[in-house]
């Protein structure tokens, strides 16, 4: 499992987007909350940590904290500093087994906002007339049914690895499969000016490539979360 992303001009257009994407790769799945704080806050990281129920957590409020018989988890959201409407949003999901003490990063995702009614970053590519998207398509196959070359800008990129806190048996019981994966979400134009096509792509760990795992259409003026 690797969380290294090769950044191309197509995937991160602006200087700010390139920097955010580079920063995102510095947070590695499996790192503890303390290691996470070192990356995010640098030398002042100790001032950002506290302890609760015998476990180290961030002082900043987690929007959601819950637990079940297999693990406790915490979410942390990181957006643009001092911005009511962030241009990007990073989500970090930490897990720990109930009887253990250390939270570890199990899932991270990066979403870019966009200056449009949908509020998210969109690709400039369009589905060709008469073409269809099928589950299992590779990036190369998807490229052939779109205008231009390449897939354009992704909207969301995520990386997951639960193996640092869960056993293979626990991951199977929770429906997580191997517990590892990467995914990207794109928003493409269609032949209908008021319609957008949302495509989910999941990384196939066996075949070592991204494949279409879902497709859904939305109105171009419908705000996406």
SSE topology:
Elements: H1 15-25, H2 33-41, E1 49-52, E2 55-58, E3 65-67, E4 72-79, E5 88-96, E6 104-112, H3 139-144, E7 156-161, H4 168-173, E8 180-189, E9 195-204, E10 209-219
Antiparallel strand pairs: 1-2, 3-4, 4-5, 5-6, 6-7, 7-8, 8-9, 9-10
Summarize the structure.
The protein has 225 residues and is α+β, with helices and mostly antiparallel strands. 14% of the residues lie in helices and 33% in strands.
Distance between the terminal alpha carbons, to the nearest Å? Answer: 28 Å
Question: How many strand units?
Answer: 10
Strands of the widest sheet, in order across it, are 3-4-5-6-7-8-9-10
Q: What is the molecular shape?
A: globular
Please describe the biggest sheet, giving its number of strands, its sense, and whether it closes into a barrel. 8 strands, antiparallel
The structural class is alpha+beta
Assembly state (oligomeric): single chain
Helical amount:
10-25%
Kindly report the average pLDDT value: 87
Low-confidence stretches: 1-12
Order of helices and strands: HHEEEEEEHEHEEE
What fraction of residues sit in β-strands?
25-35%
Q: Total number of helical segments?
A: 4
Radius of gyration, whole Å: 19 Å
